[in-house]
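Action item from last meeting closed. Structure (249 res):
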């Protein structure tokens, strides 16, 4: 099962993905892929020495070499060798594995840039092979839906807060995800204070959220102190288990 999560910036998608990863890792192997240009998943999951993590997108020379134009050809290699990359760039902690893709930063704005070619192929390989649950934390907003980096996902979770701006972004993500051919999408409510917030989301979204997560001060405190959510997730088990059940995990 390959699950991606997206939403407007600041809605809490990384927190929800981390809580789900912690719960699932109690019984199975979980690979979390942090594809956000400003990655925070390592800190959120409590991995140590996060400052030493080197995103694949930062490794310019290797990426360019892997997808370089063949001699006498004007075209990039669209099938670069990446079989050795996953293990080299994964961190492990118990049943949790983490991979940080990072941001593609290049002066070449074309869609065939070598960094993009390698990253898309790597992500496709991971999403189409292996027996573990794969959780993909996408960047905020909608741009990633046009890059092909979400190809192969079984289910897209769209996190939404009880605000009109968040709902507008969530609806746009849903529309673009449908155009991208993602087979299943669901809304997930976050920062829900009370029944009024839950009712607002149910009324204004195209379909009701499959789970709602509360607006919790302890999560914000954990983030400020650079603490893992792993010590807190017991408080969210009802919401996490409902979410897992609804997406078939």
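Sequence:
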């Amino acid at each position: 099962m390959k699950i991606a999560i997206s939403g407007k910036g600041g809605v809490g998608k990384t927190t929800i993905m981390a809580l789900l990863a912690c719960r699932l890792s109690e019984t199975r192997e979980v690979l979390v892929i942090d594809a956000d240009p400003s990655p925070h998943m390592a800190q959120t999951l409590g991995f140590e020495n996060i400052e030493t993590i080197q995103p694949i997108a930062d490794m310019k020379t290797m990426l360019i070499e892997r997808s370089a134009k063949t001699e006498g050809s004007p075209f990039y290699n669209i099938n670069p060798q990446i079989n050795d990359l996953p293990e080299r760039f994964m961190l492990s902690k118990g049943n949790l594995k983490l991979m940080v893709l990072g941001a593609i930063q290049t002066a070449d704005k074309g869609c065939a840039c070598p960094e993009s070619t390698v990253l898309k192929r790597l992500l496709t390989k991971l999403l189409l092979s292996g027996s573990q649950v794969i959780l993909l934390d996408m960047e905020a907003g909608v741009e990633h839906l046009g890059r092909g980096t979400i190809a192969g996902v079984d289910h897209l979770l769209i996190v939404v807060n009880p605000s009109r701006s968040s709902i507008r972004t969530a609806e746009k993500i849903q529309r673009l995800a449908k155009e991208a051919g993602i087979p299943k999408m669901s809304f997930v409510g976050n920062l829900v204070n009370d029944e009024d917030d839950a009712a607002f989301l149910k009324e204004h979204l195209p379909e009701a959220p499959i789970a709602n997560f509360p607006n919790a001060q302890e999560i914000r405190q954990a983030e400020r102190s650079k603490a893992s959510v792993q010590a807190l997730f017991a408080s969210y088990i009802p919401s996490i288990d409902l979410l897992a059940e609804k997406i078939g995990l």
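Note appended to the action item: Confidence is low (pLDDT under 50) at residues 105-112.
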